[in-house]
Protein: Cupin domain-containing protein
Organism: Microbulbifer epialgicus
Amino acid sequence: MNNVLAQLPEDTSMEHFSDIIKSENVRIERIVSYGQSSPEHGWYNQEEHEWVMVLSGYGIIEFESGEVMRLESGDFLNIQAGRKHRVVTTSADEATIWLAVFYRQKDY
Amino acid sequence: MNNVLAQLPEDTSMEHFSDIIKSENVRIERIVSYGQSSPEHGWYNQEEHEWVMVLSGYGIIEFESGEVMRLESGDFLNIQAGRKHRVVTTSADEATIWLAVFYRQKDY
């Protein structure tokens, strides 16, 4: 893969996660969603910070605090490590393509 | 800024660099180009690896080795630290928006 918008997976029954860069301190991932909410149960609770952007479609993210954010094309968000969150839904009409950069602080 | 495609700078006489995330091991930057080549003289020769993607417009990157690559929307490229490169040109008709992730290896 050398274009994040191309070669979309055909199976729309699940989300698809692809590592683009995997280094010691940073991981860049493409996520393709087809209307899914995730995780199926509970919250994402990550050891790394996550900077995430929507490239196409849209996604709605909920935080444990109750805050809800809708991200559309070009919108981005920085999620601190340990901040519990989940994807409530994504576009049902088209693929939602996310770009996520997971990173650690030096003293982490 | 919370949308990489919005709030484009008005001054088209120069390139515009904006840090989105600046952490010890990773820096995420938006670059908006209006037809510029860069750097003005010589090559970029960076201490960090750079993963770069074009979000709109296009850019042509040349490497010291002679290799030339044209990046359009969604195309990305990983440029190893120390690999000399430059931007030959970008779209003259519209803003070229780049997303760049600069990162270091742990043992760097």
